[in-house]
TrEMBL record:
Compartment annotation: Membrane
Keywords, ordered alphabetically: Heme, Iron, Membrane, Metal-binding, Monooxygenase, Oxidoreductase
GO function term, MF aspect, one: oxidoreductase activity, acting on paired donors, with incorporation or reduction of molecular oxygen
Gene3D superfamilies per UniProt: Cytochrome P450
Gene Ontology, cellular component aspect: membrane
Entry protein name: Cytochrome P450 family 4 subfamily F member 11
Record-listed heme binding positions: C263
Entry's family note: Belongs to the cytochrome P450 family.
Cofactor names: heme
Amino acid sequence: MKIFSKSADIMHAKWQHLASEGSARVNVFEHISLMALDSLQKCIFSFDSDCQAACRLVHDFTDAVIQQRRRTLISQGSHDFLKAKAKAKTLDFIDVLLLAKDKDGKELSDEDIRAEADTFMFEGHDTTASGLSWILYNLARHPEYQERCRQEVQELLKDHEPKEMEWDDLTKLPFLTMCIKESLRLYPPVFGILRYCAQEILLPDGRVVPKGNFCAISIFEIHRNPSVWLDPEVYNPFRFDPKIPQKRSPLAFIPFSAGPRNCIGQTFAMTEMQVVLALTLLRFRILPDDAEPEPRRKPELILRAEGGLWLRLEPLSAGPQ
């Protein structure tokens, strides 16, 4: 939580500087992607690359970090080093993987750890950036929802000094969370997935998907299915009101996929989106950029906007304290 807040502070300080004369026109996708990368490097490696300040991506150091950390373990004796970090609650993701053992007591190899770290790294920053950028876009287009979110955050943090989010605060932002989910419905960062059929699948109309086939599943289309969602093209956060019983299938909304191969980082991603969105709305008013045409969706590995996602930012305060 503290890392998310600090990374957001750095991004917001840049925005304050850009908007020092009133408002700023910003490609939020680019800025948020760097912010999310900054957070991941700190959470995975305890590494501060200054990637937001220097605006340079640092992706190719995973092996060196793992080997250096393992040498530290050896020099300091077995796992005493990691156990001390665990007790002090300063473990990062690499530490957790170095401590991990299978049921036979076998440790992960450097190759295993690199694969896990790379998965978290590359799946975990641009996807979150996509999600947050489209959320800001939707709230810019719906100022009434944006203001309600802001009031919710202001009420929650009015007695917090400094203005940081705590873990227990996450459950106290129900409307903000509803707005995040509705944006993830309309603009899922991962818009499609593949699944291998390990057995025959009988469809409702009687047809059979043969065993051994790969199936392409469109999360984007599932989220806009008119037989499930009323007015599916409309941004309506109240679809996710926890006080209203939902009759739809739990598989009607799958922004993080579903089943045994769902997203390993979904709690991490949702937490980061809640923290960064809350602090952003506390400090800025988000407005559409009238100089730009309506953004065209650009489906690559993740859902981007063609030419970037440009919004205007108006500071509401002096920024991060």
